[in-house]
C-alpha cells in the first residue's frame, strides 16, 4: 500500500509538470506568432492562479488514480557539479528544507516564487524541463553542466541541434564546477569555473539542483527518452554512441525539418528526425527527433522499433501531407535510395 501511495504522488507530480510545460509551450507559440506578422501583448502571469489550477489538476488526477496498484521507481542522485567539500560544508544550506532559495524538483514545480534569475545545476530531462518552464514564465536561466552535452545519454548531433535551438533561451555553461555558494537574505551568489576558467561571480534569486540520471544507456533500448522541453527531444533504441562499441552494421539517416513543408509553415525548421537502420536486415534499431511537437510523431518510431519494422515497411506506410510524420517516411526512403522529395546521396 505504501508503494501505491508513493506511485500516486509520482503520477500527480508528472501531471503538474506537464501542465506547466503545456503553459510554457502556449507562451512560446504566442511569442512565435510575431515572426509571422501577428503581434500579441506580453502575457500576464498570475502565479497564485496558476498554482491553484495545478493543485486542482493534481487533486483530480489523484482521485482518478486512487487504488491503482501499478508502480514504477524513479532513481535520483546528488548533483555532481558541486565540489565534494562544498557539499559537506553546505549540506544544510543546500537543502530546500532549510533554504528557500535552493530548489529540488518538488520545490521547483510548486512555483514558490518567480525568480528574475534562475541557476540550474545539472543536465538531463528534469534540468531542461524546469529551465523551459521558468524561462517561458519570464526568468533568465543559466544552466551549468559537467560535460558538453545537456543530454549525456544521447548522440552529439542531437545535443548540438538542441543547444543551437535554445541558445536564445538559456545560457548553457559546459564543463562547469560550482566552487562556492554565498548566501544573503535575498539571493545566492555562485562561484563557477567553466572549461577550467573562473567565471565572474553571479547572483541568482533561486538555484535548482537537478538530480543526476542514473539510468544507463542500455535503458534507451527499451525505454523511450522524452524531454518535453521547447523543443521536445525524443529517442528510443540504439544510439551511435552505443553502436560505436558494438558489432552491428548500421547506417544513420538525418532529415532536417527545413525540408518539410509543414515545418516551414509552422516556422519549425530547426528540428531533426534521425533514424538508424541495421544494414544487414534493414530493420530500424534506433530513432528519434528533436523539434516542436516531436512527441506527437514519436509513437511511430516506437511502434516500428518494437515490431522490428524494416525501412521498406515504413516507406510503404501512408504518411499524411503536410505533416511532420513525413520526416520518418523521407528517412526510410533516403535509406532505400528511393526518395524524391530530397536528394539521395547514393
UniProtKB/TrEMBL annotation:
* InterPro entries reported in the protein's UniProt record: Class-I_Pyr_Nuc-Dis_Oxidored, FAD/NAD-bd_sf, FAD/NAD-binding_dom, FAD/NAD-linked_Rdtase_dimer_sf, Pyr_nucl-diS_OxRdtase_dimer
Supply the EC number(s): 1.8.1.4
Give the top-level enzyme category. Answer: oxidoreductase
Report the GO molecular function annotations.
dihydrolipoyl dehydrogenase (NADH) activity; flavin adenine dinucleotide binding
Residues in domain Pyridine nucleotide-disulphide oxidoreductase dimerisation?
229-329
Protein family per UniProt:
Belongs to the class-I pyridine nucleotide-disulfide oxidoreductase family.
- Name of the molecule in the record: Dihydrolipoamide dehydrogenase
Query: What does the UniProt keyword field contain?
Result: FAD, Flavoprotein, NAD, Oxidoreductase
Q: Name one GO biological process term.
A: 2-oxoglutarate metabolic process
**Per the UniProt entry, what species is this protein from, by scientific name?**
Moritella yayanosii
Q: Read off the Gene3D superfamilies from this record.
A: 3.30.390.30, FAD/NAD(P)-binding domain
Necessary cofactors: FAD
Domain FAD/NAD(P)-binding as annotated: residue spans? 103-210
Q: Which Pfam families match?
A: Pyr_redox_2, Pyr_redox_dim
- Domain of life of the organism encoding this protein: Bacteria
Taxonomic lineage per UniProt?
Answer: Bacteria, Pseudomonadati, Pseudomonadota, Gammaproteobacteria, Alteromonadales
Amino acid at each position: 500500500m505504501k508503494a501505491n501511495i508513493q506511485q500516486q504522488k509520482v503520477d500527480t507530480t508528472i501531471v503538474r509538470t506537464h501542465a506547466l510545460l503545456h503553459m510554457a509551450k502556449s507562451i512560446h507559440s504566442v511569442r512565435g506568432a510575431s515572426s509571422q506578422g501577428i503581434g500579441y501583448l506580453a502575457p500576464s502571469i498570475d502565479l497564485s492562479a496558476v498554482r491553484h489550477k495545478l493543485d486542482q489538476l493534481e487533486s483530480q488526477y489523484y482521485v482518478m488514480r486512487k487504488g491503482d496498484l501499478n508502480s514504477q521507481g524513479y532513481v535520483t542522485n546528488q548533483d555532481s557539479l558541486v565540489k565534494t567539500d562544498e557539499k559537506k560544508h553546505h549540506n544544510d544550506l543546500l537543502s530546500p528544507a532549510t533554504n528557500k532559495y535552493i530548489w529540488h524538483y518538488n520545490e521547483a514545480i510548486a512555483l514558490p516564487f518567480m525568480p528574475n534569475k534562475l541557476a540550474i545545476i545539472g543536465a538531463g530531462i528534469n534540468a531542461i524541463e524546469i529551465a523551459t518552464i521558468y524561462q517561458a514564465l519570464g526568468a533568465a536561466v543559466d544552466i551549468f553542466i559537467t560535460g558538453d552535452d545537456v543530454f549525456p545519454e544521447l548522440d552529439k548531433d542531437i545535443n548540438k541541434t538542441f543547444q543551437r535551438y535554445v541558445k536564445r533561451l538559456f545560457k548553457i555553461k559546459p564543463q562547469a564546477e560550482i566552487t562556492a555558494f554565498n548566501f544573503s537574505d535575498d539571493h545566492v551568489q555562485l562561484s563557477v569555473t567553466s572549461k577550467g576558467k573562473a567565471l565572474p561571480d553571479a547572483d541568482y534569486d533561486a538555484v535548482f539542483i537537478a538530480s543526476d540520471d542514473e539510468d544507463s544507456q542500455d535503458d534507451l533500448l527499451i525505454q523511450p527518452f522524452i524531454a518535453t522541453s521547447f523543443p521536445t527531444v525524443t529517442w528510443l533504441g540504439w544510439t551511435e554512441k552505443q553502436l560505436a562499441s558494438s558489432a552491428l552494421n548500421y547506417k544513420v539517416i538525418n532529415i532536417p525539418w527545413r525540408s518539410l513543408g509543414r515545418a516551414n509553415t509552422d516556422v519549425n525548421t530547426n528540428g531533426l528526425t534521425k533514424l538508424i537502420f541495421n544494414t544487414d536486415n534493414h530493420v530500424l534499431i534506433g530513432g528519434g527527433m528533436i523539434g516542436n511537437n516531436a512527441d506527437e510523431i514519436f509513437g511511430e518510431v516506437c511502434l516500428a522499433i518494437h515490431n522490428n519494422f524494416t525501412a521498406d515497411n515504413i516507406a510503404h506506410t501512408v504518411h499524411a501531407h503536410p505533416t511532420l510524420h513525413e520526416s520518418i517516411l523521407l528517412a526510410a526512403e533516403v535509406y532505400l535510395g528511393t526518395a524524391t522529395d530530397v536528394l539521395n546521396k547514393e
